[in-house]
Amino acid sequence: MPAFRWKSLDQYSAFGQLVAAFMWEQRPPLNPTQLAELTGIDYLAIYRWFNGNGRPEPNHLVLLAQHTPLTIQQVFAAAGYTTEAFPLFSRDEAWEYVRECLMASQDLGLEDHNRILSLVRHVQEENRSKAERIEALPQAPSLAQLEEESEAPE
Q1: What's the pLDDT band for 11 if we cut at 50, 70, 90?
Q2: CA-to-CA distance for 136 and 133, rounded, in angstroms?
Q3: What is the pLDDT at residue 63?
Q4: DSSP of the chain, one letter per residue?
Q5: Integer CA distances (angstroms), 33 to 47, 103, 122, in order
Q6: Whole-angstrom Cα distance, residue 23 to residue 31?
Q7: Dihedral (C-alpha) 114, 118, 119, 123: value to the nearest 10 degrees?
Q8: d(Cα 91, Cα 30) in Å, to the nearest integer?
């Protein structure tokens, strides 16, 4: 595994800056190996991001957003896959965006406005309920846990 040396933040791409800032904010700060363990992303991919030798793959961006407080929009925009004008949203963010657009709309009558707003709220509640049920499911063991179990003496 190659040794890693930090540079000053301004020497990284926008994506590298976003990820490095997240890593440095942790206590203690994370190194690339720890970020790889946290996210399930190959260490060499992370190493290439910080050395400017590779653009992050979309599946890596999703893993990063799933395992850190960084949002889908932040990581895809910083990696150059989207822009402020064409944002990507998580499901909850998308419905919140629809709701905000609806609230700002001047073209609907009050009755239509209220009916659509009620529908949007209902869908948001259903999505939250589904997410809570999924989070309550038992988690499958990680690959590392399975390897530990297989190596444990009987």
Answers
A1: confident
A2: 5
A3: 92
A4: --------GGGS-HHHHHHHHHHHHSSSPPPHHHHHHHHT--HHHHHHHHTTS-PPPHHHHHHHHHHSS--HHHHHHHTTS--SSS----HHHHHHHHHHHHHH-SSS-HHHHHHHHHHHHHHHHHHHHHHHHHHHSPPPPPHHHHHHHHHS--
A5: 9, 45, 42
A6: 7
A7: 150
A8: 29
In the block, residue with structure tokens 């190493």: 47
Token code pair at residue 106: 């001047």
Percent of the chain with pLDDT over 70: 80
Structure-token pair, residue 73: 């929009």
pTM summary value? 0.57
- In 3D space, the residue among 83, 107, 79 whose CA is nearest the CA of residue 18 turns out to be 79
Lookup result for tokens 């790889």: 36
CA gap 44, 13 in Å, rounded? 17
> Is 91 exposed, middle or buried (CB count within 10 Å of its CB: 0-12, 13-18, 19+)?
middle
